[in-house]
Amino acid sequence: MYVCICKGITDHQIRSAVNEGATSIGQLRRELGVASQCGKCSCLTREIVQEALSESMPTAEGLFYSAVA
Ligand code: FES
Description:
Number of helices: 4
Shape: elongated
Order of helices and strands: EEHHHH
CATH class: Mainly Alpha
Bound molecules: FE2/S2 (inorganic) cluster
Distance between the termini: 43 Å
Strand content: 5-15%
Structural class: mainly alpha
Number of strands: 2
């Protein structure tokens, strides 16, 4: 789905950028141009970033120390 109409940025592009290391809307603005014109997409972009970051966080079962304890 298109998130940023001004720049034609989709949620898929935002998730891909987060998976490649972007962690803030400022980084996405520099890399993709999202939220760099009218700014109406800022809130939705922030939500997608938070969601993508939480999905990429390891679970406790995947951590080394959970196997040791
Ligand atoms: S909709 Fe993203 S800057 Fe306008």
